[in-house]
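User: If only I could read backbone structure tokens as easily as an amino acid sequence. Underneath my words sits a plain record pairing an amino acid chain with its backbone structure tokens. This is the protein in question:
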Amino acid sequence: MIVVVVVGCFGLLVGSFLNVVIWRVPRGESVVRPRSRCPACDAPIRERDNVPLVSWLLLRGRCRSCGEPISVRYPLVELGTGVLFAMLAWKVGTHAALPAFLYLGAVGLALAVIDLDTHRLPNALTLPSYPIAAVLLTLAALVDHRPGLLVRAVAGGAAFFALYALLWILYPGGMGLGDVKLAGVLGLYLGYLGWGAVAVGGFLGFGYGAVVGVALMAGRKAGRKSRIPFGPFMVAGALTAVFVGNAIAHAYLGLSRN
């Protein structure tokens, strides 16, 4: 339980940084310099006003310098990252794979929000995720003395990448190249966990997208030709599979044998 709390608190700090990533990366700006500033008055954010969740609450959601509202999305991203990190720590435990899956949670959350904002999945986040995931998963497999997991991870990444690449070729209007690049990263992680996770993660990504798409059309918020960012559904499907993918697959196979 202590690990879960500590990792969750660390996630709040990471979430604060993700807000910077989400704002700056699509604009091609550095995530290191300059210091964070108010988008309304350009005043630098003071250190005491940069504490995750707490500062937003104490400031009542307004900039200290100009009084303009600060979007509620900032604390929500911080809180969401903290909760996600805590859940991953609970699921993975103190195993060597935890850093790898924390990275997946962080980059997945950032990409999902960016895709919602811009309908893009920037190369600046997707492409570096390949070597980062490879290094972190390799270290985890070696520490656990299970190098065979890496073969399955590579196979899962290749399978996901090939599936999305085929869909992009056949129907480029419904699938972006950024989705293809993200698919390979997600497949690496799900392959590391098992083929059940790969199958469930892939199915749920499309399933979540279909449910939301139908709901938007039913509410007349979108039409058949509306472009809906697919990255968030891919990430949601993959993270769901991280937690319960193999369990769902085993349950399904058990029922199919009866």
